Amino acid sequence: MKQYKKLVSPYCFWLFVLTIVPMLLIAFYAFTAKGTEITTFRFTLDNFFRFIDPIFLSVLMRSFVLGILTTLICLLIGYPIAYMISKCQERTQTLLILLITIPTWINLLMRTYAWMSILSNNGLINHALQALGFAKVHMMYTDFSVVIGMVYNFLPFMILPIHTSLTNMDKSLTEASMDLGASRVQTFFKITFRLSLSGVLTGVTMVFLPAISAFVIPKMLGGGQYSLIGNFIEQQFITVGNWHFGSAVSLVLAIIVIALMALIYKAEKRTNMSNEDEEGGSRRNGKRKKIRKSSLH
């Protein structure tokens, strides 16, 4: 294994340059402010005390509300799709997964521009409504358009991990559940859904974390009126020019994201442990059932 260490060193170097160094700079700016004529920077915690500003708190609350709403919608749509795909043949599954991932190959800006042309006052939906005799519906620059854009862009990240969990699940467990007298609904909730919780948690992580920090989609579909935490950080760096407060917000957001990932990881670990115990119990019960049937015959 020693000969492979030299191959890893370039990746470690670029990881340090592109990840560690920027995080250190963000931490430096977060705990400093512009200095005087003598010192360039001075240490301060004022950047973090500004978090009690009602404007910032409202932006943070809106970001989490829209992030949770986006995650729930993606879960409600993504789980049935992943479940139906997992029931198809292997070749069909590959084709369907390819169709789901193809939109992610297109640039995010292009996909968002497409939704602008669909949801605008002169877009495809309003043209269809007018053709049917209905009045125009204002959809652009609202929470609805922002959520639609985020659900469309993040939905594949919910479907793929759930589909992976469902396809890797031991199919004999559902058969054993049915043999033991459970209905289809009971089998789904007690076996299928519980064994796919690891994929659900992974999907929730992959959707919620980028949703609360997104800034391109809210800026374009929200028209700048629906500022989220990502837009707030962008404004501090580019428009306002206050790198210190922007770095403090970025650092706090990074800590929140790391904490959420740690909690989800613990929940996923507990779920996997409980699933392993249930799998063992289901297999034992299935074997007992088969033994009883064979003894009766």
Helix content: over 70%
Q: How many angstroms does the end-to-end distance come to?
A: 57 Å
- Spans of 5+ residues with little confidence (pLDDT < 50)? 289-297
Q: Please give the order of strands in the largest beta sheet.
A: 1-2
The fraction of residues assigned to DSSP E strands is under 5%
Run of helices and strands: HEEHHHHHHHHHHHH
Principal-axis shape: globular
Mean pLDDT across every amino acid position: 83
Number of helices: 13
* Rg of Cα set: 25 Å
* Backbone structural class: mainly alpha
Tell me about the largest β-sheet: 2 strands, antiparallel
Number of extended strands: 2
What does this structure look like?
There is one protein chain. 78% of the residues lie in helices and 2% in strands. It has 297 residues and is an all-alpha fold. The protein has a two-stranded antiparallel ribbon. A hairpin with a 6-residue loop joins strand 1 (32-34) and strand 2 (41-43). The radius of gyration is 25 Å and the shape is globular.
